[in-house]
Structure formats: C-alpha cells, structure tokens
C-alpha cells in the first residue's frame, strides 16, 4: 500500500464525523466531508492543510487556491478566508490532515538548517521587497507524505503519542522548510521578516476587532511607515486593514447569532458596529443574506444534521 492510500485508510477510520475534529495528537486535526460544501467564511490560523482525498477551494480576497492530494496549502498568519470542499462523495469522502504550525520551532529549525540564497546582482538602490501572500500552495513531496502517514498512524497506538508525535511533527516542519516552494515558510521563521511584522498588526486586529483604530497605530505596531504598511498588509492578506477588520467582525457576529442565539442588532453592537443598517449591509455583502435570515438558515441546517 502506497503512502497516499495508507493516509486515506487511516483518516477514514479516525475522521468519523463530518467537519473538523481535534485528535489526541497535539496540534493535529482531521477533516471529513461526504459531499461538496457551501462556501463558508472561516479564520485560518498558521497551518498546514494536507489533503488525502478530494479537493477544496479557498478564497483569500479575490484569489482562489484549489488544493488536492498533490498540492498542500500553507497559511502563514491568521487570515479570514472563504473555504468550500469541491470534490467529495460518500464513496470517496474528502479527507484531510491539518497541522498547527509552531513558529518558534520553525525558527529553531531554520537557524539549524539554513538555505543558501542565490547570489543576486548588485542594485543601484535597495528595494523593499514585498512579502508573499499569506497563503501558498506547494507540491506534496513523498518525504512530507511519508511523515504525515507516520504522524497520524500514532492514533492507532495512543501510548506512543507523547514520545513520538513531537519528533514526527518536527520532521514535517523540516520537510516544509527544505521542500519546494519554501519561501513563505522561511519568512515565517524569520522574526523580523515583513511577513511577521504584518502578523503583529494582524494579531492586534484579531484581539481588538471591536475597537476603533487608526492606520498609523497599526503601522507603528508593525514597525513600518503608513504607506509601506498599507501596501504590505494588502500583499499578505489581499485586504485593506479596514476590510480585514470587517471580516473578523462579521464572522464573530455570525457565530454569536448561530451559537448563542443573539439577535442581529445585539450581535452587530457586540462586535463594534454602531449602525444596524451598516452592519446589515456589510453582513449581506459577505454572506449573501441579511443577518437574521442567514442565522436562521444555519440554525435550521444544524438541527437537521443533528437528527
């Protein structure tokens, strides 16, 4: 049995319910879907998403990323995206492995195993290189796939997880650092990279999305000038800082209405909107339905799936 077939077999046994499930291995989740799903806004944290079977599409701004067993997806910072499983069936369900990325461990590995950069021609004046987009697709190598199989196979021997999962997880990070298209993960490992400077501003927005802010304050958090910050923020997230905050607000408002049965006006106020009409307009633009109708539809769908 090849590595991919083995990964499908293991995930089929341990991803038993629809959606994402945490496993006994720290930082590892498994995902299952038996049919294509509607596009759903979610907040991606720094993760590796490795598909064993099926296909998924993620939208970051207006850019679509389609990945499958031959291509893995890497998210480098917290990003509000829209994701949908686009290939899945009861006979061949969508199955994937999600690994949380430990930036401190990536940095340690990068320092221990540096990659020599190609020699560049001298420039007349220095250029402020734009950071990569916060999401990248790269080829799934046999070495990475083999490590993934050994990691999830620990689910069959729970007593080995504590001793072995840190070792195999570190190997997977090493494969990301040394594999093809490793530019983004190398940026993650550099504490003072432009990517990590933007990540500081993103982390502040994630924790303070319900508060007013000034672009100059965010630029100061990132350690950049205003114009440089704005350009770099959009390069990484595909959104302006204000649009990024709006997506964080609207995703949390949706959660409050669906999971906590909060009314639309209360949810909008809780996440920082002062105008109910502006909240409704922004919500409808992102989710396709007014807040109350969308929340009612999702609650009804949840009740049907539970029965």
TrEMBL record:
<protein>
    <submittedName>
        <fullName>AraC family transcriptional regulator</fullName>
    </submittedName>
</protein>
<feature type="domain" description="HTH araC/xylS-type">
    <location>
        <begin position="199"/>
        <end position="297"/>
    </location>
</feature>
<dbReference type="Pfam" id="PF12833">
    <property type="entry name" value="HTH_18"/>
</dbReference>
<keyword id="KW-0804">Transcription</keyword>
<dbReference type="InterPro" id="IPR009594">
    <property type="entry name" value="Tscrpt_reg_HTH_AraC_N"/>
</dbReference>
<dbReference type="InterPro" id="IPR009057">
    <property type="entry name" value="Homeodomain-like_sf"/>
</dbReference>
<dbReference type="InterPro" id="IPR018060">
    <property type="entry name" value="HTH_AraC"/>
</dbReference>
<dbReference type="Pfam" id="PF06719">
    <property type="entry name" value="AraC_N"/>
</dbReference>
<keyword id="KW-0805">Transcription regulation</keyword>
């Amino acid at each position: 049995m090849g590595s991919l077939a083995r990964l499908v077999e293991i995930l089929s046994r341990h991803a038993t319910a629809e959606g994402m499930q945490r496993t006994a291995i720290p930082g590892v989740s498994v995902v299952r879907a038996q049919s294509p799903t509607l596009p759903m806004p979610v907040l991606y944290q720094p993760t590796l998403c490795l598909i064993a079977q099926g296909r998924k599409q993620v939208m970051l701004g207006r850019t679509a990323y389609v990945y499958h067993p031959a291509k893995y997806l890497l998210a480098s910072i917290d990003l509000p995206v829209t994701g949908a499983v686009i290939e899945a069936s009861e006979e061949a369900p969508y199955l994937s492995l999600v690994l949380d990325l430990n930036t401190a461990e990536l940095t340690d590995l990068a320092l221990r195993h540096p990659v020599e950069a190609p020699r560049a021609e001298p420039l007349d004046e220095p250029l402020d290189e734009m950071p990569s987009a916060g999401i990248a697709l790269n080829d799934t190598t046999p070495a990475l796939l083999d490590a993934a199989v050994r990691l999830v196979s620990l689910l069959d021997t729970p007593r080995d997880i504590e001793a072995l999962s840190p070792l195999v997880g570190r190997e997977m990070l090493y494969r990301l650092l040394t594999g093809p298209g490793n530019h983004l993960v190398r940026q993650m490992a550099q504490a003072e990279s432009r990517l990590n400077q933007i990540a500081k501003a993103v982390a502040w927005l994630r924790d303070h999305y319900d508060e007013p802010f000034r672009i100059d304050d965010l630029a100061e958090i990132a350690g950049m000038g205003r114009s440089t910050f704005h350009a770099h923020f959009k390069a990484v997230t595909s959104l302006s800082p204000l649009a990024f905050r709006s997506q964080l607000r609207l995703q949390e408002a949706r959660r409050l209405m669906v999971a906590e049965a909060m009314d639309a006006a209360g949810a909008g106020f809780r996440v920082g909107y002062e105008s109910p009409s502006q909240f409704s307009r922004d919500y409808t633009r992102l989710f396709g339905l007014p807040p109350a109708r969308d929340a009612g539809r999702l609650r009804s769908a949840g009740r049907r799936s539970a029965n």
